[in-house]
Amino acid sequence: MAGAALGSPFFLVKTRMQSASNFAAVGFQHNYKSSIDGLRRIWREGGVRGLYRGMDAAMMRAGAGSSVQLATYDHCKSYISRNLAHRGLDDNSVGTHFLASMVTGFFVCMVMNPFDVVSTRMYNQKAAAGGHGGALYRNPLQCFYKTVSTEGFFSLYKGFLAHYLRLGPHTILMFVFVEQIKALGRKHL
């Protein structure tokens, strides 16, 4: 969660720059010339509060994702090795690690996607008059509420497949490599 807090100003600028378009406007158009220009303009408009607008949603996302990732992986790995050992998927097989990671990535996306939608909306909104807060949402909870009440529950899962196709391979590679490094450590230490 500390990483989400520290990186929030950069994610804010990245989100706004990626949403900018001369062809088809996506959200409020901030029209930054560069990342440095974005950081300067946000600082001028809202100071430290402006730089950290949306940080609370990003921290909730990171906390929820991390807590689900570790617990789900351990549970899936244990379940697979208990129930599929007869097929060669024991606790130490790469196949077990791969399958447990694949399932874990799905559940992490299920938990994180609503926070991604909220974070993106918090980051991309226009600043309220005076530079304090956002023009559309005061906080992540209000953003959740407004999003679900106007667009329905499943609007929190916009971009889910793309999210899984990005996070799934990352999760698989991470856990498979971690398990292989742990095995090497047990063997050589």
Structure summary:
The chain has 189 residues and is an all-alpha fold.
Structure, explained:
Helix 1 (2-19) crosses helix 3 and helix 4 crosses helix 6 (160-188). This protein is elongated. The protein is built from 6 helices and no strands. Helices cover 72% and strands 0% of the residues. It has 189 residues and is mainly α. The protein has helices at 2-19, 35-51, 55-83, 94-124, 140-151, 160-188.
Binned, the helix content reads over 70%
In total, how many beta strands? 0
Query: Could you name the ranges where pLDDT drops below 50 across 5 or more consecutive residues?
Result: none
Structural class: mainly alpha
Q: Largest beta sheet, briefly?
A: none
What general outline do the C-alpha atoms trace?
elongated
Order of helix and strand elements from N to C terminus: HHHHHH
Number of helices: 6
The Cα radius of gyration reads 20 Å
List keywords for this structure.
189 residues, mainly alpha, 72% helix, elongated
List the helices and strands and how they pair.
Elements (H helix, E strand, L loop, with lengths): L1 H18 L15 H17 L3 H29 L10 H31 L15 H12 L8 H29 L1
Helix pairs in contact: 1-2, 1-3, 3-4, 4-5, 4-6
